[in-house]
Specification:
Length: 277
């Protein structure tokens, strides 16, 4: 299998390279492949002719997206549009990575694939725009929504908490945002299992739901640390971009396709924290 990968230098990109190491992999970094250039995108895929494109490249700094919305729309929205157009020209399937932030978080039970998106920040809007481009410009697509990613080779919440636990005596972490922390290697494994199944929309996260505060407590427990971790509200911990309150997602379509559920978030987190020691 010949696999093209955008965002190969990102956190998920590294995990996909690990999981797909036995394939003919063509990794493209953001620096080497400008996804916002339509002509170049079409030429790159026309020249390489992959069997599938995994599109992970994105502007994922949620707060930076809020202050530079045009960059978010250009990279996340137009970049996905360009990839979809390029894939359609050579009839290559595209697997596009999206986000739980396409939802507003007002639903207090996990979202299904058919629930109506309603993003509340520019990052979420740009990811919804990307979904709309991909699903309208080609019919050979997988859209994979995931959430709260962490893993090696990238900035993430788990690494931040590990660093702060070592540097400070007391942490303050929000306790009113709920979702599913997802290990990049587990996501990459599920993506590999998903390829070849039916096209469409999929939610792919580790199992279970927690708050950021509960996740931080678990990290401290796994490290054997007793640092006080104080729960605070989102209103107290002000950020440029609003976050959804409840953005957990049911992996319904994944289950219906017969792909095994990803392990519980706490089990995956334990493996990662032990590896980080």
């Amino acid at each position: 299998m010949k696999v093209a990968l955008t965002g190969a230098d990102g956190m998920l990109g590294h995990a996909i390279q690990k999981v797909f190491s036995d394939t003919e992999l063509m990794p493209f970094s953001l620096a080497s492949f400008d996804i916002t250039d339509l002509e170049r995108s079409v030429k790159m895929l026309r020249d390489t002719r992959p069997d599938v494109l995994i599109h992970t490249a994105a502007f994922t700094d949620v707060d930076a997206c809020e202050t530079d919305a045009e960059k978010a729309y250009r990279v996340n929205g137009m970049g996905a549009r360009n990839m979809a157009i390029a894939c359609e020209e050579i009839r290559c399937p595209i697997l596009h990575i999206s986000s739980d932030y396409v939802f507003d978080g007002e639903k207090e039970t996990p979202y299904n694939e058919w629930d109506r998106p309603n993003p509340i920040n520019h990052y979420g809007i740009s990811k919804l725009l990307a979904e709309q481009f991909v699903s309208s410009l080609t019919n050979k697509f997988y859209i994979v929504r995931t959430s709260w990613l962490y893993g090696p080779n990238g900035k993430n919440f788990v690494d931040t908490i590990l660093r702060l636990l070592a540097e400070t005596k007391e942490l303050r972490v929000v306790n009113d945002q709920f979702g599913s922390p997802t290990f990049t290697e587990d996501l990459a494994t599920a993506i590999r299992q998903l390829l070849g199944k039916g096209y469409g929309m999929y939610h792919v996260t580790n199992s279970g739901v927690c708050s950021w505060h509960e996740c931080a407590l678990k990290i401290a427990e796994l490290k054997g640390l007793q640092n006080p971790i104080i729960p605070v509200t989102s209103a107290e911990f002000k950020r440029p971009a609003r976050r959804p309150t409840h953005s957990a997602m049911n992996n319904t379509m994944l289950r219906l396709e017969g792909v095994p559920a990803l392990r519980h978030w706490s089990e995956a987190l334990e493996q990662y924290v032990k590896q980080a020691r």
